[in-house]
Each structure stands twice: as C-alpha cells, then as structure tokens.
Design brief:
about 260 residues, alpha+beta, 2 domains, 7 helices, disordered N terminus
Amino acid sequence: MIKSKGLLMKYLNYLLLCLSIFFTSNTFALEQKYHESVLPVIVAFKTQDKTEIAAHIRYPLKRQYPLPDIKNEAEFINRFDEVFDEELVAVIGSSNVNTDWDSVGWRGIMLNSGVMWVDTDGKIIGINSHTAKEQAFAKRLIEQDKQSLHSSINTFEEPVLDWKTANYHIRVDDLGDRNYRYVVWDIDKKISDKPDMVLLNGDITFEGSGGNHHYTFKNGRYSYILHVTVIGCDTSPPGWLEVYKDDEQLLKERVISAE
C-alpha cells in the first residue's frame, strides 16, 4: 500500500511514463508491402497531376447521394475540383506513408482515420470528405429532388439514400438533427405517387471506420434495416434491405439500383 500523497504522485508519474514509452515504442507503421500501393498515390497528389490521380481511381467512384457517382477518368478530371480542394490535395500530397496511413484488413488502407481509402492495388476506393463546391452542387440537386416527390414527403433537410430492390423503391431522408425517415413504394409506382409506408425516428449504426453502416426503423413488432455498403469488394451490392418480425427474418433483398 502507498502510504503518502507524495509517494502516490511519484508512482502515478512513473506509471504514466511507462505507458508513454510503451505506446511510443509500439506505434504501428504501415507494413512495407503496402508502401508500393500508397506511395504512387501520394506522389500524384504532391505533383497535382490530375491525369495521374485519375489513373489511381477505382471506378465508379462513389459519392454521397444525391451526388452522382463518377464513372470514368474523363468525368473524374472534369469534376476534380468538386471532389478535391487545395487543402485536401495538400493533406494527401504531404502525408507520411508510415504515420498517416493504416491497413484495415479487407477494407483496404486508410489515410488519417478514413479521410481517403486505397485498396491494395493502389486504387482509390473512397473519399470521405466534401468540398464547398460539392456541397453547393448537392444543395441544387436536393431542391430538384423535392420538386419530384409526392407532396406528403417533399419536406426534409437532406436526402440520405434512394434505392431500388427487386420489389421496392426505398428512400431515406434526414428531417433534421439525424431524425431519419423511411419511405417505400412498390417497384412499379412513381415517387410522385403517395408512398405505401412512411416510418419516422430511424436510428443509424456505424460498423467500424470504413463507413459501412445501417439504418433501423421500427413499426410495432416489425423492424426494417437498411445496410449501406461504403467499403466493400467488387461484388458487394450498394446495400440490402432486411425485414424482421420480432427476431424472425421475413425478407432480405439486395439493392439493384442506388442513386
């Protein structure tokens, strides 16, 4: 037992010093085998070579709805300043391959806890930031989106997703302060038609640092869960819908089209 305050403080300081030395000496650096994947990406941004950067993209490059995905190199170069501002280009171009990048298993290699993701082939697969220019573009698209919807659901802060499965057209909107709304139509109906069902007060759950997440909506004993794929493999769907009654799964459908 430590009997005096002075001794206790010395003990705590010693413990903190030991912990500091431990974590400093055990800082994880990106494995050498991944350097050849990341270094060319850093160089492309350091030289600000848009053509070279475009060659390091895995297409289509997903953007957050309602922004359209970027389908090819020509479109990427045309929209470059929409996706990257000077600050983000500088962050990537000046990044340190050892201290700023981390391998996260099958998800790939991330910069600064997920600002950007690269796969093991050196292809950029995700950019989790939005420039002022991109935000302004999204705002214009949102206003167009509201005009196309049924009057009962055309009020919201921002759209979250717009999906089609084999049997349903689904959308999720943020009504403000992460108050999520679930709207569904049968697949043969128009979005200008009155929805078949509307649920409010959805919850969002994130699944690690890759960005994958799901929304859950409740309707009595029924649960509607929408799983969103942000980082996945080449065969991963944009997401899928699951419907449960209590713990019994009633439905599971892959997303076949995502806006």
